[in-house]
Amino acid sequence: MGETVAVAMSGGLDSSVTAWLLSRGDAPVLGLSMLLWDRSQEARNGRCCGALDLSDARRVAEQCGIPHYTLRMEEEFRRHVVDPFVDDYLAGRTPIPCTRCNTFVKFDLFLARARVLGAARMATGHYARIVEGDGELELHAARHREKDQSYYLFELTQEQLAASLFPLGERTKHEVRELAREASLIVAGKGESMELCFVAGGVREFVEREAGRRGGPSRLVDREGRELGEGEPYYRYTVGQRRGLGVAAAEPLYVLAVEPEENRVTVGPRDELACGGLTGTSLHWIGRAPQGEVVATVRIRSRHPGVPALVRPLPEGRAAVEFAEPQIGVAPGQAAVFYEGSRVLGGCWIEGGLPT
Amino acid sequence: MLPWLGELWGNASSAHAFGRRAREATEAARDAVASLLGGRPEEVVLTASGTEANNAVLHALAPGDALVLSAFEHPSIDRMAGRLAERGVEVRRVRPDRDGVVSAEAMLEAVDERTRLVCLMLANNEVGTLQPVSAVAQGCRERGVPLLCDAVQAIGKIPVSVAALDVDYLSLGGHKFYGPLGAAALWIRTGAPFAPYLVGGSQERQRRASTVNVAAAVGLGRAAELAATEGEEWASHSRRLRDRFEGGLARLSDVTVHGAGTERLPNTTHAAFAGVEAQSLMIRLDLAGHAVSTGSACSSGAVHVSRTMAAMGVDAEEAVSSLRVSFGKGNTEAEVDGLLATLEEAVTALREARTATA
């Protein structure tokens, strides 16, 4: 008998297999689901925060032979994830709610609740690895790149890593599904949840519904400020977006910048999207903070392959990142995450791009 | 019950021997339910749930009618009232006091010539407080308005007599007094208006179409027999344990027993543990083998701020720190003491955790 582990169970395949694997071990396991966004009225399935998925979580917990409870955390989720998500869009940024959910909800509030219930550690179905390093814990990308979720975990602290388990970090998605099949878990055939768990339908419609308003048409301009026409409200565009601009031009146009105060969207050819670097805020290091500049591979969105870069810490938690070669699609609101090989050193939130 | 799922299986509506046998078992069960209530067997309609029984009485209200109910009726009445309101029924909810008791005068004041039905539970399903049903029933009788009494929570814990209460409809559910889940009944006073909720076959004297669940009926009947003969003993046993438990609670600081000064069911304690999140407390107790409940549970197993607490004017913080503990004939003093020990430990730990994070 070891110390109790609380598994965060969404009712999806990954967290279900996580619970299953732990339940085969010696330590007592406690299944906990978070009711984050009550969509029972929408009667949809296949998302991580719907009540239907929580019912799957409860059934899987029964299959695993572990106790299971649902924690209502809708208010916290709204405050830490949904409202900032909407605010980001309205401020012309492209947010990553999953990171905020990890930072503020799963690895903070959930962990605290789990501890209150007597658990010493928590486990999630994230594809990432925690490795014992030189006097500190290291966060590493999953063994298999296809499912790696380490990008979303860059804000974790040493204390959080010490309290966390990622049992899927060494496995492939295929293996995980096979495990679910072998164990006859009811979720074995469940599909991937690709969309944001709290958004049914379009993100832009969601933002408008939450904001309680729909903005007026934006002005589409080129780099030189020349008017190209009228566009959708500004928050419907994200930097790097190509389709749906509705402007005729000799070459494909991309969104270069979104300016809420002006309700202005700057567009231009793809090469004008290129940035030589970026500035960021809320700089965070998972291990000891380095002295001075750091050479790292930087990923500027979750599916970005990474680019060699020089990370320069600045005062007040800011950072400047210089890419070894120009990058397309530096979007404010996304995270720049620094890697050394598979190891996540830390990261920052992108404020803006630097010229090439 | 078991033979009626196996070798004695038969449809009580069939005329052949197997059917007649099942029919007789069903009628014997009906007799037992009627006898427990002091009513007549033909006044008992067997249903699948207390919810169905309550819904069946309410559904007949029409636009323009007025409905009077307490503000902390069970959801099977309260939500049905909400639906009726959408259809043009005027719904008047009368709030209970801070101790969880509704005033008979206030209930009757809300009754007027448009009122077609009054609903008042015998005992509240969360705090266990007894309501002045017979006083309200008397006033309703004078005004010619029928009264539905939801006695689901009370049956088997206190004596229930439809004659003494003088109500017109009374609902009960088997699982609240050691009977089967999914076996319940609605008692309808002879002459009281009733429009069937389920229509189809002519079962239950045309008041509830559906093939009768014979095994469930037999189980309900047996539970009613036992409640009639052993109910008093059940009550005194659970009251002894409940009082022992509440005596022990006095050792913990900042515990408020809701409805403490009122007449309550003998088997429940509903208490607020200041500074403690009740769901965490419930989980810790469950993990230690003690099954208790928070205010009310939703289908996902998550906790809402209880409607009952809100109706009583209990603030949200106190409401979410409230726990309900029920004692039954199978519980022992040793279990009560074990529960108290675990509870004391858990409450202390949860209060410390809160102080640490505050």
Task: Offer a few descriptive terms.
heterodimer, A: 356 residues, alpha/beta, Rossmann fold, SH3 type barrels, Elongation Factor Tu (Ef-tu), domain 3, 6-stranded antiparallel beta barrel, 5-stranded parallel β-sheet, 7 helices, 17 strands, B: 358 residues, Aspartate Aminotransferase, domain 2, Aspartate Aminotransferase, domain 1, 2 domains, 7-stranded mixed β-sheet, 4-stranded antiparallel β-sheet, 11 strands
State the low-pLDDT regions of chain B, or none.
296-302
Give the termini separation of chain B: 54 Å
Mean pLDDT of chain B: 94
Strand portion of chain A? 25-35%
Cα distance, first to last residue of chain A?
57 Å
Anisotropy-based shape of chain B: globular
Give the domain tally of chain A.
3
Number of helices of chain B: 12
Account of the 3D structure:
- The complex is a heterodimer of chains A (356) and B (358).
- Chain A has 356 residues and is of the alpha/beta class.
- Chain A is 24% helix and 30% strand.
- Chain A has three domains: 5-125 and 167-182, Rossmann fold (3-Layer(aba) Sandwich), CATH 3.40.50.620; 215-272, Adenine nucleotide alpha hydrolases-like domains (SH3 type barrels, Roll), CATH 2.30.30.280; 273-354, Translation factors (Elongation Factor Tu (Ef-tu), domain 3), CATH 2.40.30.
- In chain A, helix 1 (13-23) links the parallel strand 1 (5-8) and strand 2 (29-35).
- Chain A starts with a strand and ends with a strand.
- Chain B has two domains: 2-227, Aspartate Aminotransferase, domain 2; 231-357, Aspartate Aminotransferase, domain 1 (Alpha-Beta Complex).
- Chain B contains twelve helices and eleven strands.
- In chain B, the strands form two sheets. A seven-stranded mixed beta sheet of chain B has the order 1-7-6-5-4-2-3, with helices on both faces.
- In chain B, strand 4, helix 5 and strand 5 (147-150) form a beta-alpha-beta unit.
- The interface between A and B is medium-sized, with 18 and 17 residues.
